[in-house]
Amino acid sequence: MSDNLTESHPHLRHDLSIDQQLALRTSATRLQQDFGDHFGVETIELFLHTSYEQFAGRASVPNFLPLLAERFARQRLHALAKVEGKSNDGKPTVLFLCTHNAGRSQMALGFFTHLADDRAVAWSGGSEPGDEVNPAAVAAMAERGIDISREYPKPWTEEIVRAADVIVTMGCGDACPIFPGRRYEEWVLEDPHGQGVDAVRPIRDEIERRVRALLAELSVPVAP
Asked: Domains in the chain and their CATH numbers?
């Protein structure tokens, strides 16, 4: 076996540090353990390393990049398995989209995940992902006991859109992806970008109302 990680893992970028290469190799091993029954090594590594590329140019803490890449690759592989009919738990899947995936869609994801627990699946994404989740949105959600501080802006990908049963768009306009056969909703909400917590609270409350209504339409029991 080659001692050169970029030779044994051809999708690895050559400008990565040894620590980053090792972290990605560990991530690839974990993903293969979880998805090896559905996909080959090449597919899993390709998804991991293309996910890494999505964050490499804008992450403020490079040491966290392999972890972010693994989390995103895991989400994408779950989506691909559903699209290809290799795995489907029957849970409704909702995708929340906005421009920067930093405010509205992250709050919607937070409410949906908190209220639905494991009875439904929610993802979020942006047409032009920002560098971090809006601090005012994080603070406003914390007032409701929901922690979105560990979330991160990310793009949408084709397999994620195709795996969603419902796609909720919030201001991304023509940049939002359109795929036949999906249910689409446009939520017209003020953009919290650049606003303080006081201004974000009404946006947060309206998002909660809409998420609760959507869960009721999907017949998903809401956590107390």
From this structure: 11-88 (1.10.8.1060), 90-224 (3.40.50.2300)
Q: From 77, 221, 58, select the one nearest 152 (Cα to Cα).
A: 58
Mean pLDDT of 51-75: 83
Query: Of 191, 9, 164, which Cα lies nearest the Cα of 75?
Result: 164
The token duo for 15 is 């400008």
What backbone phi and psi angles, to 5 degrees, belong to 146? -115, 125
Measure CA of the first residue to CA of the last residue in the chain; give whole Å: 54
Strands 93-98 and 121-126: parallel
Nearest C-alpha neighbor of 189 from the set 95, 93, 98: 98
Per-residue pLDDT reduced to its tens digit, 121-161: 999 999 999 989 999 999 999 999 999 999 999 999 999 99
Q: How far is 132 from 159, CA to CA, in rounded Å?
A: 23
Catalytic residues: 98, 172, 176
User: How big is the chain by its Cα radius of gyration, in Å?
Assistant: 18
Look at 223 and 123; give whichever has higher pLDDT: 123
pLDDT value at 46 more than 60: yes
Residue scoring higher pLDDT (208 or 172)? 208
| Beta-bridge mates of residue 169 | 97, 186
Please state whether beta strands 166-170 and 93-98 pair in parallel, antiparallel, or not at all (unpaired).
parallel
Interior/surface letters 71-87, b for 16+ CB within 10 angstroms, e for the rest: bbbbbbbbbbbbbeeee
Contact 165, 107 (CB under 8 A): no
